[in-house]
Every structure is written in C-alpha cells, then in structure tokens.
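**Archive record**
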Amino acid sequence: MEDYPQTLNELEARFSTEEACRDYLVQLRWPEGFRCPRCGHGQAWPVRRLLLECGACHYQASVTAGTVFQGTRKPLRLWFRAIWWVTSQKTGASALGLKRILGLGSYQTAWSWLHKLRRAMVRPGRDRLSGRIEVDETYVGGTDEGQKGRPRADSSRKAMVVIAAQEDGRGVGRIRMRRIRQASAQELTAFVQEAIEPGSVVCTDGWNGYRGLDALGYRHEFSFQKDDATLLPRVHRVASLLKRWLLGTHQGAVSREHLDYYLDEYTFRFNRRKSRYRGKLFYRLMQQAMAIGPAPYRDLMKKGRKKKH
C-alpha cells in the first residue's frame, strides 16, 4: 500500500522527529515487516537513531546501510524536506536553490545531495518502452548549437545524447535518454536494446547506425526525409525541451562527466509530469533511494558513468 504525505504541511507534521523518519524508512526497506539480515528473525527494537537490534541474535541492523542515506550525519528530517523540495520543483532543482531552502552550510553539501538523489531517479529493473517509438540523437553544450547534421565524435565542446520517445496519440508518452560517444551502430543498438522492448516499432531517420534493428527483433521504420523535425516530431520536441531545461534551470553549467545523471533527472520528471500528487513523486524517490547503493562523495567526483553494452 502506497503511503505518503499529500501536502507540505502534512509532511512537516508527520516527519517532525527523527524517530518518525526512521520508522518510515523501515517501512520502505522492509514492506513485509522487519527481517534480520543475519538470522531472518522478525522482531527488533531501536537502539540508536538508525539502528535496530534483532530480538533473537541481537545483531544491530542499520536502516540506512546500503542506501543513498548511508553515512549521513545530517538529520533525516532534513533529507525528507530535501526530497520533497526536489520532487515538487516542476522545472528541476539546483544546488544553490537547495542550499538556500534548507539552510545548508555549504554548496558542496547541496551539490552532493542532489547528485545522490539523481542516482536514485532510475528505478532498478524499470520497464522498457513499448509500442511505437521514435529514436534520434541530438547534442547539448558548445557554441554551435544550431549546426546542422550529426556532431563530430571528437568535439570537446558538446555531448551527444540519444533519445527514445514513445508515441501517445499525437503526444509523447515515456522517454529514455543516454549520453553516447558517437552515433555508431554499436552504441545506438545497445541503447535501443536497453530502452525498448523487442517487438516494438522503432522509427528513425536513414542513418546507417540504426541498420540491423530488424534482426534484433524490432520492426524498424526509417526514412531519408531531410527534415527530421517533421519525420520524428516527438523526439525533437523532447530534445528542445531538454536543452531549454538545462539552460534555464542549470544555466547550461552541466559537465559532460555528470550529464548522464541530469538526463536521469529530466527523464524522471518528464515521465511523471502528469502526476496529480507531488506526494507520490516524493514516495517514488524515497522508495528508489532505499533500493540503490550508497554514493560517497569521492565516487560522485569520479568522471562519468560506466557504459553498458
């Protein structure tokens, strides 16, 4: 059963103590009831702020170990407010905005929190897109945004992004994005296989990098029409909105090394743009923050995310 606050006032009233926050995390981590990681016993009692002691073997299990919150020294109440604020911002969240709204002591703390949460915006094992899907590449960054054609792979001024946009009538359904090094068949087909369910119709332009999708179980439709914006209107609409978002919310100051995680944030927001309740977005991000591993600051500073091929 989904359990989340409906309003900011309800959030503040419900999670006004560390104990209430801890109990909510316990509920998210063990939805069927607590189970000791060591012996499997189902009863425990709190012994410290984030520890539960097993009633049988007395093992002390941390509620936040192995999650985004692992090792935090800040109150959980502050984390809850941060997640509510991040999910309630329709246009995205900046580190400077988070620092101001929470009164955090440093920009570095706000930046690291946002990057930890961005890593939680991809649900492990999420469903692939299906139906009729438009796929194309664009690029972000650099001074030659208006340049025609595909960008050079060796350009240091811009990053290439491949986008898949699901058709929903005349509109756009769900999307997927990934930064790629170049528009090669290896990288493009790897993205399609990760993002799109076999048997779907994949619509592209006539670029050679998409050849071979039929052999992988997709129905590939392509055209050599010069005006890609007319041929693939949904994916081009998403690309335009993405660039506007990066420029407006982040003033274009997004490094190539961390671009993948900004793409994850944009995808999370776009795919939930029609949600009626901000509280449900809070709930989803809390769930996913408890389901993925920790992200220490030293790892956040490492360049790039390993590619899956």
About this structure: The two ends are 36 Å apart (CA to CA).
